[in-house]
Each structure stands twice: as structure tokens, then as C-alpha cells.
Amino acid sequence: MTITLNHLIIPVADRWAGSRFLARLIGGEPVAAGPFAALRVNAGLTLDFADDQPVAAGHYAFLLDEARFDALLAVLATDRSVDYGSGVEHGWDRRTNSLGGGRGVYVRDPDGHSYEFFTAVP
């Protein structure tokens, strides 16, 4: 049997706010799933946002196609309240990077999580 990551719990201060923040960037609509706000990322992966545990900022990386990446940049360009940037060395400079031969960007959510989006695997 192939190993596939099925779901991941992301601790946040408010499960609905946290899940809607990411949904605004990548699409989808969170749904109630027990104590979680669940956001389906693709056919095999769901992110379960939980607000019943301590928040510890994490790093979550997503490989996107070019069209989805462009849609993400369009959202970021319209919202000055969202911190994003080209990466560790340059912080939240509101730019993209070209790591791995594609385009990439890091986005910080209100709970301190760092979401990384890129179009090519290094």
C-alpha cells in the first residue's frame, strides 16, 4: 500500500477564521467535522483546524500549478493586511522568489503559521 497523508490538524485561535484565511488563498470552503473546521485541499488531503489546543506556529508548504499561483497572487495583491514575501532571507517583502526554478511565496496567517506556495519542486 502506498502511504498518503490524509489529514493534518492545524492549531489556531479560531478554527473558522483560520480555515477561512487559507481557503481564501487556495480555494474551497471549510465545513464542520466534529471539533474541527475542515478544509479539503485535494482528493486525498484535508486540513483540520482546531481551536481547542495551544497554538504553535507551523510551516505548511503547497505545490501549486501556475494558474492557481496566479490566483493566489491576485488575492494577496488586494489585501494589504496579509504579510507575504519571498522567503527567509527577505522576510515579508511582498515579493515572490524563484527557488527551485519556479515561483514561490510565503504567507503568514494571523496565528503565526507560515504557508509556503511554490510552482516547482526543487
Give the overall silhouette.
globular
Mean pLDDT rating: 95
Oligomer: single chain
Number of distinct helices: 2
N-C termini distance: 27 Å
What is the count of structural domains? 2
- The residue ranges in which pLDDT falls below 50 over 5 or more consecutive positions are none
Report the count of strand segments. 8
Elements, N to C (H/E) = EHEEEEHEEE
- The CATH superfamily of the largest domain is known as 2,3-Dihydroxybiphenyl 1,2-Dioxygenase, domain 1
Q: For the largest beta sheet, what order do the strands appear in spatially?
A: 1-4-3-2
Identify the CATH architecture of the largest domain.
Roll
CATH topology of the largest domain: 2,3-Dihydroxybiphenyl 1,2-Dioxygenase, domain 1
Helicity range:
10-25%
Q: How would you classify the helix and strand content by structural class?
A: alpha/beta
Radius of gyration: 14 Å
Keywords: Dioxygenase, Lyase, Oxidoreductase
Organism: Crossiella cryophila
Protein name: Catechol 2,3-dioxygenase-like lactoylglutathione lyase family enzyme
Domain VOC: 4-120
Task: Give structural notes.
This protein is an alpha/beta fold. The protein folds into two domains: 1-53, Signal recognition particle alu RNA binding heterodimer, srp9/1; 57-122, 2,3-Dihydroxybiphenyl 1,2-Dioxygenase, domain 1 (Roll), CATH 3.10.180. The protein is built from two helices and eight strands, in the order E-H-E-E-E-E-H-E-E-E. It has helices at residues 15-26, 66-78; strands at 7-11, 31-33, 36-42, 45-50, 59-63, 83-85, 104-108, 114-118. The strands form two sheets. Strands 1-4-3-2 form a four-stranded mixed beta sheet, with helices on one face. A four-stranded mixed beta sheet has the order 5-8-7-6, with no helix packed on it. The radius of gyration is 14 Å and the shape is globular. The mean pLDDT is 95.
